[in-house]
Amino acid sequence: MKQNLIFSIREKELQLSKLSEHIDKSVVCADLYNKILIEKATLKKELEDLQNKSIVNRIKHLLPHREKLICDYFTK
Fold first, then answer.
1. What three-state secondary structure class fits 59?
2. What's the rounded Cα separation, in Å, for the pair 59 and 25?
3. pLDDT in tens, 36-58
4. CA-CA distances (angstroms) from residue 14 to 11, 30, 35?
5. Contact indicator for 51, 13 with CB cutoff of 8 Å
6. Which pLDDT value is given to residue 8?
7. Contact 47, 37 (CB under 8 A)
8. How far, in Å, CA of 23 to CA of 5, rounded?
């Protein structure tokens, strides 16, 4: 999953570099450039979330989790 996201991000970067030369020449190219830029940002966010989720999950498993009991709500 992570490797697929990294590969897709690299593809988007390559597409953006090719389209950057033609942005001023055509409205279609500018729209396509913007669309690919948004797709790249979305993929980067997914990759970031995937990495953060794994770190958070590791920490949660290391730390002991104490469940709240009903008497915890009534203590002063």
1. helix
2. 51
3. 999 999 999 998 888 877 666 66
4. 5, 15, 14
5. no
6. 94
7. no
8. 26
Phi, psi of 21 (to 5 degrees): -70, -25
| Angle subtended by helix axes 2-19 and 27-62, to nearest 10 | 160
**Whole-angstrom distance, CA of residue 40 vs CA of residue 53:** 20
Burial bucket for residue 5 (CB in 10 Å: 0-12, 13-18, 19+): middle
Q: Which amino acid is at 73?
A: Y
Joined tokens for residue 45:
């966010």
pTM flag (> 0.85): no
Band of pLDDT at residue 61, cut at 50, 70 and 90? low
